[in-house]
Amino acid sequence: MSFDRIIYRLTDKRIPAVTGIGLVGDILDHAEFQKQFRNVKSEDKRSRKQIDCGTIMTTFIGLLCMGKPDFEAVAEFQNDATYYQTALHLQKGLPSAATLRQRMNEIGRTQREQLLKFNARLLKSNGMEFTALKNGMIPLDMDVTPMDNSNTKKEGVSFTYKKFMGYAPMMAYIGKEGYLVNTELREGKQHCQNGTPNFLRQTMKLCRKMTDRPVLVRLDSGNDAAENVGILLENGAYYVIKRNLRREDVSEWAVNIRTWCKDIREPREGKTVYVGSTFKDIFYTTEDGKQKSICNRIVYEMIERNSSPDGQIFLEPQIELNMFWTNLGESDQEIIDLYHAHGECEQFHSEIKTDMGVERLPSGKFDTNELVLELTMIAYNILRMLGQETVNQGKAPSKRIVSRKRIRTVIQNIIHFAGQLTKHARQLFLSVSRSNAWAEAFLGLVHRFIAY
After folding, report:
1. What's the pTM?
2. Averaged pLDDT in 10-residue chunks for the chain of 452 residues
3. Nearest CA to 62 among 114, 119, 18?
4. Residues 6+ positions from 65 with CB-CB distance below 8 Å
């Protein structure tokens, strides 16, 4: 049957546009998130709080999973308050935008340790398995990602190495899927190594709670420090860290490498690549003050260009030298490839800042924005869990075989999944259309994460 045109009209039927928010609420409820944070005491004793901290943080996680990290966005929940309260298991009701902002300011960074522990338990209790590398190790990628907060007067915003005003948080991702295991908000001007030793110790403790498999830590040259190497060695971790040559003479290295190297390649005329290993002592101090040293392996890749790809000859050779600390036994080329794969965490940064909209943080207070980032960690992992389950079940429509679903895809097709809400026999029923290409995948997530 064909029709001439569509007639638009209003209806009294309840059709929530974000039915996937119920999955988020059930995952948090199953992990007893609100129960854990319900009795958090506020330092502000001016009045008795009608809405507890667990409700406040659950509400904001719901907003984050919708890609709307703004306090004012909670007003959208008021259009169908009963549905959102039921979906997110909010027994104390919905907070207003003003209440949400005020209470988030009060909580600040007081719950950081508890949120990190909850995040680790959330991943483990839901049976999330981290995909290992070919060598059987679980990758742990740590990196700083500047967040642009230009033209604001927020506390902690300053000039970043990306040449804009903002923050420079440190992120730690585990597994090839990129689950977020730890995060720390930092001022934009803060050097990436400042605070990293404590962050590294904390992250290693969290990883031990989530997996018994060996962990491979990958760090950029900004975190090339003997203290970091010592922490990783003392924790029994493996690592690939790009060396920071600092004031070392590259030309002297080039002369030595031409003498030592046995693996010499010529991918094209005028370009020569030298790949090999050497060794150097590293001296570090343990947490209890003991002085130790270790002879550490350095893998190098030196690229010498005497001409450009189009045949232009250079007056002097152009030398590019990349060096990596490692305690792995893999071949030189495998070590280089392992570090190059570290660049995938830039994709994870992008999904948080772009897909979830968590770049221009909502508060003017540094501690509140740190709380936002910690709740983002939980929301991001929930979205990643939902995406990975659709991949594992193979029920989601896809043009090609993929190893993970982008966060934007999960928000658009799982969280913003329309359904019809009806009430019968003191129960709420949510009906989804068979014609929706994601209906089977959505119901698969319901059976996987929700226990009736």
Report:
1. 0.93
2. 81 86 93 87 59 94 95 91 91 91 93 95 90 94 96 95 96 96 97 95 94 95 94 94 93 94 94 96 88 94 94 92 96 96 94 96 96 97 95 83 90 92 83 88 88 52
3. 18
4. 20, 21, 24, 379, 382, 383, 411, 415
